[in-house]
């Protein structure tokens, strides 16, 4: 409206429609209103006449945030004063048509006229598009004459070459927690312009970025240091184990850097010494590397404690921070009373802050606060607090520690991070991020937010996992029923499956809440390609082959991957005593039952033999404990209805079968689970099979090795395995349980 009034004062009442449209577009598209008057003046004086000129003018203003603008350069950039005559348009179109004359005469009106338009426009950037189109139409008509019936027929479509299935790229679709079947690779989603992120050094082009008189000089220094390289960081707190939500953050930060030829730092946000432990530092790095990423450098917020302290003193000197004595309870929430110490003299705050550093204040007796109001209304966030706790790395050098709000942006600045990627809940801290860097006149990166990844039927908060461990509901942070990354690894989820899951969720701004079965589907895809086949029996039933064809065990060749026998075979012994699943035998075959029963033979997988029941042996209680059978070569026997798996001369093992830890989708939601998450535990989340049998081909397997046990599912060797007693965790079943989808 201001632009319209300004234009009316210059033009009087004669504000035509075209000028009005330009003014409206200017007001709608201009991010920084300080240049509104400048642009309106050019429109009012009819020096900017077209939308093309306006777009160029807006781009120039966006790329030159500092005053004053170079007027001559601005006018050159958006074609002010350039008048394109009808004669120039006629000559340019004539030259283009002459260049394509042969194709035009051959294809006539089926020729792509847009090509002529585009080439003429490239020669006459500021010419009116409609005038060029009219001239092209006129000269084409002159060359070809009016359209004939043949010209009006539709051009036959050329069939596009189809991609082989393996070459097909998929596109991420996430709607209401459902995952589309098509997934673009994560690197494709993150490459180049895909996310509309700024280019390194062009931070000022980001909406909301604050430009100061020093910004351009600081960005110039930044580019000199980084060489225009993309720099990101993954900044976990070392006070807990990473979970599935962190996998998205790892993929986003490391992936964005990798996709754009940049680097990613692993920076531990170790500003809270009370909760930090060595095991967390180690586990975090281990999980980052397990997912396939190598940090450019491993750094710690504590590496910069001296610099951060020096900057805190500078912030006080500039009148932007003060020492406050309000209690923690008083300043909690969004409407705390203003601090009575906000306007205390700078010299006083400097002395008191030094006293804080020397340990003259007890915990909670003094804080250093910054003078700003954040987006969410929170006023004067705390920068430093007193904690008499030795630090994991700096020992007892400090008794004051910086907060996240103070530390994070300054560490990003020190490391010259280009894109500070964080989850949506940190959007409320964006203003303090920009404010603090600018208050200290240091390089200011850009904070970008993305949506969190949440999973149903689980809890991921550190506090709640600790409660589960303390109450004995789970064994530890790596219990395979949890969705921490160490737990997923222990259960047997391949890192590629987790990365693929993150790619399918997509790098959305919206929060994504997903079903666990979608992650399980990603695991099946990867394990089907990676996990060699073996045979195991969970509930063994002894079978004696009375006419076994050899005096000792035979060796049977079993393909590691039946769909691709070029990937090798392994040998398993086949003896007169074999073990099958109890559930693969029935004394009476119901209609539709195809496995072993009296009068109903079955094939033994990979052996080339069919077995037929001769005798059923039972114990005193009537339970079947052994079968006596005869075998027949499958090439002479009638084809059986089914083939079953078996083991012979097997290894004893323990198998752990997992189900969901919680009964409800949202165990933390009081409306769904009024008694709290601990009341929602699934009593059947773990079933241990103590006396399972597995074929001897797995005897040399190590912890985390993975197998597909035929007909049973995908399994991983657990670290609890000992000499003579292997332990396997079921990762996922072979097929999705319809009840879980």
Model description:
The chain has 741 residues and is α/β, with parallel strands linked by helices. Among the domains are: 1-78, no CATH class; 86-145, Arc Repressor Mutant, subunit A; 542-561 and 573-640, Ribosomal Protein L25, Chain P (Beta Barrel), CATH 2.40.240.10. The protein is built from 23 helices and 28 strands. The strands form eight sheets. The chain has a seven-stranded mixed β-sheet with strand order 14-26-27-28-24-25-15, covered by helices on one side. Strands 19-16-22-21-20-23 form a six-stranded mixed β-sheet, with no helix packed on it. A four-stranded antiparallel β-sheet has the order 6-7-8-9. The model is unreliable at 159-182 (pLDDT under 50). Residues 643-718 form the tRNA synthetases class I (E and Q) anti-codon binding domain. This is glutamine--tRNA ligase.
Describe the structure concisely.
This protein is an alpha/beta fold.
Largest sheet descriptor: 7 strands, mixed
- What is the top-level CATH class of the domain at 542-561 and 573-640? Mainly Beta
Number of helices: 23
Radius of gyration: 36 Å
Helix content: 25-40%
Tell me the CATH architecture of the domain at 542-561 and 573-640.
Beta Barrel
Instruction: Give me the side-by-side strand order of the main sheet.
Output: 14-26-27-28-24-25-15
Identify low-pLDDT runs: 159-182
- Report the average pLDDT across residues: 88
Which topology of the domain at 542-561 and 573-640 does CATH recognise?
Ribosomal Protein L25, Chain P
What does the overall shape look like? flat
Q: What structural class should be given to the helix and strand makeup?
A: alpha/beta
Give the total of beta strands.
28
Give the terminus-to-terminus CA distance.
54 Å
- The proportion of strand residues reads 15-25%
CATH superfamily of the domain at 542-561 and 573-640: Ribosomal Protein L25, Chain P
Protein name: glutamine--tRNA ligase
Family: Belongs to the class-I aminoacyl-tRNA synthetase family.
Domain Glutamyl/glutaminyl-tRNA synthetase class Ib catalytic: 229-528
GO biological process, one term: glutaminyl-tRNA aminoacylation
């Amino acid at each position: 409206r201001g632009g319209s009034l300004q234009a009316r004062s210059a033009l009087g009442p004669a504000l035509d429609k075209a000028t009005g449209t330009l003014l409206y577009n200017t007001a709608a598209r201009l991010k920084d209103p300080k240049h509104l008057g400048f642009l309106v003046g050019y429109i009012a004086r009819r020096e900017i006449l077209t939308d093309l000129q306006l777009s160029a003018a807006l781009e120039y203003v966006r790329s030159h945030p500092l005053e004053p603008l170079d007027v001559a350069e601005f006018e050159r950039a958006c074609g002010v004063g350039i008048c394109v005559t009808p004669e120039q348009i006629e000559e340019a179109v004539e030259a283009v048509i002459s260049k394509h004359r042969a194709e035009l005469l051959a294809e006539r009106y089926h020729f792509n006229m847009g090509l002529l338009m585009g080439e003429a426009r490239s020669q006459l950037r500021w010419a009116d598009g409609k005038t060029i189109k009219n001239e092209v139409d006129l000269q084409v008509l002159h060359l070809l004459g009016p359209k004939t019936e043949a010209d009006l027929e539709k051009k036959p479509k050329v069939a596009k070459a189809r991609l082989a299935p393996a070459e097909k790229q998929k596109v991420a679709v996430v709607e209401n927690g459902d995952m589309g079947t098509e997934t673009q690779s994560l690197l494709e989603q993150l490459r180049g312009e895909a996310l509309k992120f700024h280019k390194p050094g062009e931070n000022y082009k980001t909406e909301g970025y604050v430009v100061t008189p020093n910004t351009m000089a600081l960005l110039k220094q930044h580019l000199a240091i980084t060489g225009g390289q993309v720099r990101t960081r993954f900044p976990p707190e070392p006070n807990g184990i990473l979970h599935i939500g962190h996998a998205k953050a790892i993929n986003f930060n490391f992936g964005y850097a990798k996709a754009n030829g940049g680097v990613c730092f692993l920076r531990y946000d170790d500003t809270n010494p009370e909760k930090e432990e060595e095991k967390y530092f180690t586990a975090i790095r281990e999980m980052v590397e397990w997912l396939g990423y190598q940090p450019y450098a491993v750094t710690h917020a504590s590496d910069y404690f001296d610099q951060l302290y020096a900057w805190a003193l500078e912030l006080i000197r500039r009148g932007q921070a003060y020492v406050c004595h309000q209690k923690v309870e008083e300043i909690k929430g969004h409407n705390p009373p203003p601090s009575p110490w906000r306007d205390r003299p700078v010299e006083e705050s400097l002395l008191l802050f030094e006293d804080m550093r020397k340990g003259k204040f007890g915990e909670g007796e003094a804080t250093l606060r910054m003078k700003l109001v954040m987006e969410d209304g929170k006023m004067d966030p705390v920068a430093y607090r007193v904690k008499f706790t030795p630090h994991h790395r700096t020992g007892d050098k400090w008794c004051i520690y910086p907060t996240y709000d103070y530390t994070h942006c300054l560490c990003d600045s020190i490391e010259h991070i280009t894109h500070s990627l964080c989850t949506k809940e940190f959007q409320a801290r964006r203003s303090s991020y920009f404010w603090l860097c600018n208050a200290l006149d240091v390089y200011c990166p850009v904070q970008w937010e993305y949506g969190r990844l949440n999973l149903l039927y689980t809890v991921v908060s550190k506090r709640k996992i600790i409660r589960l461990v303390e109450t004995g509901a789970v064994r530890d942070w790596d219990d395979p029923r949890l969705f921490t990354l160490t737990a997923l690894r222990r259960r047997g989820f391949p890192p590629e499956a987790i990365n693929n899951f993150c790619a399918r969720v997509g790098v959305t701004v919206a929060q994504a809440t997903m079903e666990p079965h979608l992650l399980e589907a990603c695991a099946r895809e990867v394990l089907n390609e990676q996990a060699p086949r073996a045979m195991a029996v969970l509930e063994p039933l002894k079978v004696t082959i009375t006419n076994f064809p050899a005096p000792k065990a035979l060796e049977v060749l079993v393909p590691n991957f039946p769909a691709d026998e070029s990937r090798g075979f392994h040998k398993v012994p086949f003896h007169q005593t074999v073990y099958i699943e109890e559930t693969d035998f029935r004394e009476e075959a119901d209609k539709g039952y195809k496995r072993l029963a009296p009068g109903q033979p079955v094939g033994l997988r990979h052996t080339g033999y069919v077995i037929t029941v001769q005798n059923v042996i039972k114990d005193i209680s009537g339970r079947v404990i052994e079968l006596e059978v005869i075998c027949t070569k499958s090439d002479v026997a009638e084809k059986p209805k089914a083939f079953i798996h078996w083991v012979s001369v097997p290894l004893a093992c323990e198998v752990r079968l997992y189900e969901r830890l919680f009964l409800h989708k949202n165990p933390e939601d009081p409306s769904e689970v009024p008694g709290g998450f601990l009341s929602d535990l699934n009593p059947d989340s773990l079933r241990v099979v103590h006396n399972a049998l597995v074929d001897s081909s797995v005897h040399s397997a190590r912890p985390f090795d993975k197998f597909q046990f035929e007909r049973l599912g995908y399994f991983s060797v657990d670290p609890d395995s000992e000499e003579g007693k292997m332990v396997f965790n079921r990762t996922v079943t072979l097929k999705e349980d319809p009840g879980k989808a």
